[in-house]
Amino acid sequence: MLNRDLAEHHKPVSDIFSKITGAKDYEPFTLNKEQIEHFHEFGYLTNVKIFEPEQVEVLRKELTEIADPAHPKHDLFYEFHNNQSTDPETVLFHSLGHWRMTQGFHDALWNPAFAKPASQLLGDKAIRFWHDQLFCKPAGHGGVVAWHQDYSYWIRTVPMQHLTCWIGLDDATTENGCLNYIPGSHKWGLLKRLELGGEMEAIFEQLTEPQQAQIKPVPMELKKGHACFHHPLMLHGSFANKSQRSRRALVLNVFADGTTSDTDEVMLRGTDIKVTKGEKMQGKYFPLLYDPSI
C-alpha cells in the first residue's frame, strides 16, 4: 500500500516508466562522447528524449489534477504559485514538490532515460534528487522567466555539483516561450539572484561589457518529451508565450551524492525540512536516484 506522501518511497511505485532490473537496462540511454563534450564546452545539451508520448500524457493529466488548489494533497507542495509573474497582464504557473503527490511525477525521477544521462554529465557520479519544478505558460499571455542561474538559488548546498533537466510537456517553440541559453555563460562565475518572474533583462546590470556583447540567446526548440540539460551556472530564461498553444514543462534538479548543507536554515522554502550545516544531503527528501557503481 502506498503512503499518502510518495516521498516515503525511494523507488518507482508504478509501471509508467521502464523497469530496471540491472545495469544493462541503462545502456540504451547512454550519452556519447560528443554529447558530453558539448555539455562541458557550451554548458548545455539539448534534444535528449526522456519521455515517450504516452508518458507525457500521463504527466499532463496529473498536472491538470494537482494544479487545482482544492487537490487533497495540496499541502505536500513545497511551493505553489498560480501566478509568479510580476506583470499583471501575464501568467506564469510555478510549483515545486509534485513528486510527493502523483505516481507519474514521482517515478519520473528514477526514469533511466533521465537518470543515466544526468549521472554521466556529473562525471559518472551517483546522483540524488534535489527538487522538481513545473513551469506553465498559458496560450496568449504566458509570462517570462527572467535570465538567471540556477545555482544562485541553491548556494545553501555545497560544493556546486548540480544539474538541471528541463523537459517539455508540450512542443516548445520560440513562439510559445521555449527555453533560451547563452552558450558559454556557465564560465562567467556566480551572479546575484534575482526575481524569477521579474524583468527579463534585469540581470544584465551585473554583466561586464564583454559579457553583454555575448548575449545572443539560442532558443531550445523541442518536441514534447524531449529535454535540455544545463550546468548550474548557465544563464537561461524564456520569453513570453503569445502563441495560441500552451507551454508546459517539468524540471528535474539533481546533485552528485556527497553534496552537503551549507546552512542551518530551512532547506526548501515552504517546508520545515532542515539539514544541519556540514551534513550530507540525504534521507526522505533527497533520495538516491542512480549509482553507476552498483
From TrEMBL:
State the Pfam families in the record: PhyH
Q: Which GO terms describe its molecular function?
A: dioxygenase activity
Recite the UniProt keywords alphabetically: Dioxygenase, Oxidoreductase
Statement: the UniProt record of this protein carries the keyword tRNA-binding? no
Keyword Oxidoreductase applies: yes
What InterPro entries does the entry give? Phytyl_CoA_dOase-like
Required co-factor(s) are: Fe(2+)
Q: What's the protein called, per UniProt?
A: Phytanoyl-CoA dioxygenase family protein
The lineage is: Bacteria, Pseudomonadati, Pseudomonadota, Gammaproteobacteria, Alteromonadales
